[in-house]
Amino acid sequence: MIDSPLCHETPAWARLQAHWRQEASHIDLRAEFARDGQRLPTLSQRAPHLWADLSKNWLLPGTEALLRRLADGCGVLDWRDAMFAGVAVNTTEQRAAMHWLLRTPPDAGLLGALPPARGWGAGVRGALQETARTLQAMLHLADEVRADAAITDVVHIGIGGSCLGPELAVQALQHLAAGGPRIHFVANVDGGELGAVLGRVRAANTLFLIASKSFTTAETMMNAHTARAWFLAQGGSEDAAHARGIARHFVALTAQPEAAARFGITRVLGFEDWVGGRYSLWSAIGLPIAIAVGSAAFRALLAGAHAMDAHFLAAPPETNLPLRLGLLDVWYRDFCGLGSRCIAPYSHGLRRLPAYLQQLEMESNGKGVTRDGRPLAVATAPVVWGEPGTNGQHAFFQMLHQGQDVVPVEFIAAREPVGGPAEHHHDLLVNAVAQAQALMLGHASDAAHRRCPGNRPSTFLLLERLDAQALGALIALYEHRVFVSGAVWGINSFDQWGVELGKCLARELVARQGSGDWAGVDASTRELMRLSASAPSQL
Ligand code: F6P
């Protein structure tokens, strides 16, 4: 495994601290644009399916070079190559992280872009062939469902990575979904969500997808059992030969096919444990996407992501967009002291992007120890939050312009509209550009309350259009960017042990409720449990 020092012990870390203190903390973006006619070309670039403008960020000439030295010192590109070679970079679970393989064309391979020493072993090659077969089966099923006039509704039950990616993609590609069934997503254990969906569908015309890598997640299992009971109560049958049988109306998407079989589902699309939950939309978990838009568009989604993989592997560091953005994230978090980042997709289709990125970034890098368990002395994942524009402008943009905290904003927009009146799209884009400009320029005024300080940083990602390829490239860009910042911090970005604690305690509370034994439980928890189980009048 690669020997990586703690990031704050590398010489580049101290250099960057000094660079911030002595120079960059005084940056004035307006003055930088006036001074440096090359600022835009230097700090903007093309990458697969998009154009990225980093020029409104707190970067001086020389900042990125120092950040690249930090990346070198932390072995970021070695870790990248290790991930793409199928090495078990998920160290706490002894697993590879090969979600990228799911979008690698079987005949292409990334070998050419990898140093020979890190080329693929037989295991990765075998996995690639297997993946291609599973993809084939999944797309066949997707097209079959699309062609089946009897299936008008698909209910996808899953949570976290088993929901957010598919939901984001289905919404983003809605304009390509003509002719397919309606897709509903149910994640929350709050029965209100499932109840609302079941109230809108007919059992005879519904296909349920039970999506869970582990097939043990409490919320998904409860929703799946309730959906199954509802289906049987609506005239469904456990008899596999029956037209209204569970066998025909339920499909499991899981890495645990035996568990799905025990649940009573015989139609299973599997995937391997080297696909992390929040990286799984490319696997069988993506079936609702393929059902929504068809197999050709799903392949285009994979192709777009693969193009970004190839870019991440082959582009030189100076123009390697995931590397640049991942390092920018470290710069803001650890040197500029900025604790959050706002995601502002100027696109109704991308309205779930902030939620998707919250899981991707905060579950991947919201950690306090390195891969080998050493405590980290530096800040890691920022709070990622946001809302689509222009809605956000009438909510929290006030704080972005005049609040006491500086929050880097990420604008994501598409050049071409994908439906709807063209003049709306023009307005949408103008608003995004104006907001980025306003954050930077600010506003001088005699009236203090009208003054906007400006000099507020933002990044602009402009897609050609919101099609399947561009969406694939955008998501893969974020995956790799998160990997880069995680690699600088020395984090294992592919586990999520922190999530376990709450799950365990929820199980324990259920057990205590049964036994009535509250010994050793704090007074607040005890009272909350008592009140939540009490008669309404007691609250
Ligand atoms: O929230 C924790 C988590 O393990 C996520 O990483 C994962 O995406 C989600 O739960 C769902 O897990 P599963 O697919 O196993 O149901």
In short:
By secondary structure, the chain is of the alpha/beta class. The chain has helices at 11-22, 29-35, 39-42, 63-73, 76-84, 122-147, 164-172, 191-198, 218-233, 246-249, 257-263, 287-293, 295-314, 321-335, 353-365, 397-402, 422-441, 468-489, 498-515, 523-532; strands at 44-47, 50-53, 153-157, 182-186, 206-211, 250-254, 267-270, 340-345, 383-386, 409-416, 458-465. The protein is built from 20 helices and eleven strands.
Question: How is this structure best described in words?
Answer:
This protein is of the alpha/beta class and 539 residues long. Helices cover 45% and strands 11% of the residues. It is built from 20 helices and eleven strands. Helix 13 runs parallel beside helix 18. It is globular, with a radius of gyration of 24 Å. The N and C termini lie far apart (56 Å). 6-O-phosphono-beta-D-fructofuranose binds next to loops.
